[in-house]
Amino acid sequence: MQGKHLYEYAVIRFVPRVEREEFINVGIILFSKRAKFIKARYLVDEKKIAIFSSELDLDSLHASLRVFDHICSGSKEGGAIAALDIPERFRWLTAVRSSSLQTSRPHPGFSSDLEATFEQLFTELVL
To answer: What is the pLDDT of residues 49-104, one digit of tens each?
Structure first.
């Protein structure tokens, strides 16, 4: 990828109790239309999550997070949404929801190396 690419990213958040509006950053999704790039990664820190909720079904959380992988990769497991073009997939994944898995508002930036930018954002915002 040559030159600077406009990208957008959103933080994937786990909200154990929606009514309390407390959240834990568990992942990142980054997309660039021009570069035809979309990628998500998540990491569930079970110790952190246990502080917020002792009644959590971790298998269900992991299954919900895997949907990001399926949609980003365009795989059949992602259903009709995964068949959309990359910008539409990103918009669907970052749409406002009142569930226990949410994303931040998208944030823009420029990068000459989207993979490196993705790694940096994941390290700074999730780890």
So the answer is: 888 877 788 899 999 999 999 999 999 999 999 999 999 999 999 999 878 899 99
pTM of the model as a whole: 0.92
Report whether 12 contacts 39 (CB < 8 A).
no
User: Residues near 120 by Cβ (< 8 Å), separated by ≥ 6?
Assistant: none
CA dist 100 and 87 (Å) reads 24
Q: HEC string of 36-51? A: CEEEEEECCCHHHHHH
Which residues are 110's β-sheet partners?
6
Dihedral sign computed on CA atoms, order 21, 22, 26, 32:
positive
Q: Nearest 5°: phi and psi at 99?
A: -120, -175
Q: Are 4 and 108 in contact (CB under 8 A)?
A: no
Domain boundaries, the chain: 5-125
pLDDT digits (tens, 9 = 90+) for 1-33: 468 999 999 999 999 888 888 899 999 999 999
* Residues 126, 44: Cα–Cα separation, whole Å: 9
